[in-house]
Design brief:
about 425 residues, mainly alpha, 434 Repressor (Amino-terminal Domain), 3 domains, flat
């Protein structure tokens, strides 16, 4: 007998219950009674939470996320709903409750739609059968927050960029979406002069969100957010920011989002914005050429960007670009060319200057790549498998798995049936998780 259907559109907590059930039913042999045993609660409580009849207590959410195998989605969604409920409670106390027509009838429309859009950012809606426009098209939803100063928005951009490097991507997405709502609302009421400045923040936050979605393997949504970021940057009229957004889009496109040829075209178009060679674009160009097996051209590009970098390159004002990108590119390109000494020196620089776990892990995979290119297939497969196996589930993001596939593709076709290759292929068969 199938469980009673849940309408995720009925209320925010019906949506939460629908996500709960979807996560549980996605796990083999996890019925309500078995889940309840692992949760140390009665199965009737879980049933009520899944049907949206009751709200789980806060102290149960982390355990619920673990038992249901939700990889942080339930925690992040619960946090979203609680934040939005708290924001509306503040509005009610301030006497502004009835200003929003959605609440004059006592419904939960704003929280439900906002939560739907959060799930849209995680690519969860289609699995639940929920139809909703992307959040990108609904940024005019209001959270009722007071407008922030331009300095506050600058700090928010820096905070989100730091979170991108230090927190699981699903958690980063939650806070980003809330700020994007608020920023869109403030833009609608801003003076022309302030709107220009706020468009800069919109371009930066949209870029960060596109990167998060790339981490989460939601490439279609990421590409749409890159478009939003480009439009905001173009509207701001800031040439440096316009170039920066396009540099970021091209660079992250290499991780399964676009073909290397398409990335090279993005680089070419972006370069048309400036007369001077851009080091960040050149790092992406060198890596794309390397992926295409055009190692001589990749090395030429790398040497050209090294010559420019030696004349002192100034990091961008937002903190996206750091000198570590040059070291990382060196690690990648030298490894793919089989130049182990140069690659190892570059890897050491990556480890010394890293600001997140992603580049050091990928630099270790570059070492495995170099080993494979030099003919040490079994050793390289073992190095790569050991590197990825050591990661926490929340760290298995697309940028790391794609580098693993780069190592796998370096194995000659007639050696692809080796046991070590098959074993590493199993390691890569686990899809990147959505953060925990």
């Amino acid at each position: 007998m199938s469980a009673d259907p849940i309408d995720p559109h009925a209320s925010p907590w019906h949506l939460f219950g629908a996500v709960m059930r979807h996560c549980r039913e996605s796990r083999p042999n996890l019925g309500l009674r078995r889940a309840a045993t692992q949760m140390y609660t009665d199965f009737s409580n879980l049933a009520k939470w899944e049907r949206g009849e009751r709200v789980p207590p806060p102290d149960m959410i982390t355990r619920l996320d673990q038992v249901y195998g939700a990889h942080g989605i339930l925690t992040a969604l619960y946090d979203t709903l609680e934040r939005l409920h708290a924001a509306e409670s503040q509005r009610s106390k301030a006497g502004t409750y009835c200003e929003n027509s959605a609440y004059r009838n006592g419904d939960d429309d704003m929280e439900r739609r906002a939560a739907l859009q959060f799930l849209a950012g995680l690519g969860t809606l289609s699995a639940l059968g929920v139809s909703s426009e992307p959040l990108r098209q609904l940024l005019d939803l209001s959270l009722g927050h007071e407008h922030r100063s331009l300095e506050d928005w600058d700090r928010a951009c820096a905070d989100h960029l730091h979170a991108l490097r230090t927190r699981p991507p699903a958690q980063v997405a939650t806070d980003l979406l809330i700020d994007l709502y608020a920023l869109r609302r403030q833009l609608d009421a801003a003076t022309p002069a302030d709107a220009i400045e706020l468009q800069r923040s919109m371009a930066v936050l949209s870029s960060i969100h596109a990167i998060v979605l790339t981490y989460l393997d939601d490439h279609g949504m990421a590409i749409r957010w890159w478009r939003t970021a480009r439009q905001a940057a173009d509207t701001s009229g800031d040439l440096t920011l316009r170039l920066l957004v396009r540099c970021e889009e091209a660079g992250h496109g290499l991780y399964g989002q676009r073909s290397p040829q398409a990335v090279l075209e993005l680089v070419r178009r972006a370069q048309q914005l400036t007369r001077e060679p851009d080091v960040d674009l050149m790092t992406t160009e060198a890596k794309a050429l390397s992926m295409l097996g055009r190692n001589d051209q990749a090395l030429d590009t790398l040497h050209a960007l090294q010559a420019i970098a030696d004349r002192d390159v100034v990091p961008d004002a937002y903190g996206f670009w750091t000198p570590n990108r040059i070291y990382f590119t060196e690690s990648w390109v030298y490894a793919a060319a089989g130049q182990d000494s140069a690659a190892e020196t570059a890897r050491g620089n990556v480890l010394k200057h890293n600001r997140s776990y992603i580049h050091p892990v990928n630099a270790d995979l570059h070492r495995a790549l170099c080993t494979v290119v030099q003919g040490g297939i079994d050793e390289g497969m073992h190095q790569a498998a050991t590197t990825i196996d050591a990661l926490k589930p929340s760290q298995r993001i697309r940028h790391i798995n794609e580098t693993g596939h780069l190592v796998l593709r370096a194995v000659p076709q007639d050696q692809q049936d080796r046991p070590s290759v098959a074993e590493f292929r199993k390691v890569l068969s686990l899809e990147p998780v959505r953060g925990a």
